[in-house]
Amino acid sequence: MTGWHWFNPQMSDDPAADDAANVDQMRRKIWQRCLGGADGAVVLGDLRAMTLDRVLGPDAGDRALWMLEGQRALVLQMRQMAQGSERKNR
Questions:
Q1: Phi and psi at residue 4, to the nearest 5°
Q2: Distance from C-alpha of 82 to C-alpha of 79, rounded to nearest angstrom
Q3: CA distance 52 to 46
Q4: C or N terminus of the chain, fewer CB within 10 Å?
Q5: What angle do CA 8, 14, 20 make, to 5 degrees?
Q6: What is the pTM of this model?
Q7: Contact 48/75 with Cβ under 8 angstroms?
Q8: DSSP 85
Q9: Which ranges in the chain belong to alpha helices (H)?
Q10: For residue 52, which of 30, 29, 76, 31 has the smallest C-alpha distance?
Q11: What tens-digit pLDDT sequence spans the chain (90 residues)?
Q12: Distance between CA 89 and CA 21 in Å, rounded?
């Protein structure tokens, strides 16, 4: 290791990787600030009711099913980010 990396073991020898990790950490904090509190819980609850708790009937077409599944995926990712979890898929 070179420079001050010995002082901060979380730093790598690749400054670009360190910057990317800092950006990801900053984004997680922003998501937590926006949706992590009581107001965010209300918003996420409304989104859950509109997507995750919604059931389409047996006559729903493919387009409606795909649209709802996309919305569900988005809401789940928003919940995950609000909880401070790292994104699993990029």
A1: -95, 10
A2: 5
A3: 10
A4: C
A5: 85
A6: 0.69
A7: yes
A8: P
A9: 15-35, 38-50, 62-82
A10: 76
A11: 455 655 655 655 666 666 777 888 888 899 999 999 999 999 999 999 999 999 999 999 999 999 999 999 999 999 999 998 655 544
A12: 15
Max distance between CA atoms of the chain, in angstroms, equals: 64
Residue 86 Ramachandran class (φ > 0 left, ψ -120 to 50 alpha, else beta): beta
> Which burial class, exposed, middle or buried, applies to 31 when counting CB atoms under 10 A from its CB (0-12, 13-18, 19+)?
buried
Distance CA 20, CA 26 (A): 10
**How far is it, in rounded angstroms, from Cα 35 to Cα 74?**
14
Residue 8 tokens read as: 């901060």
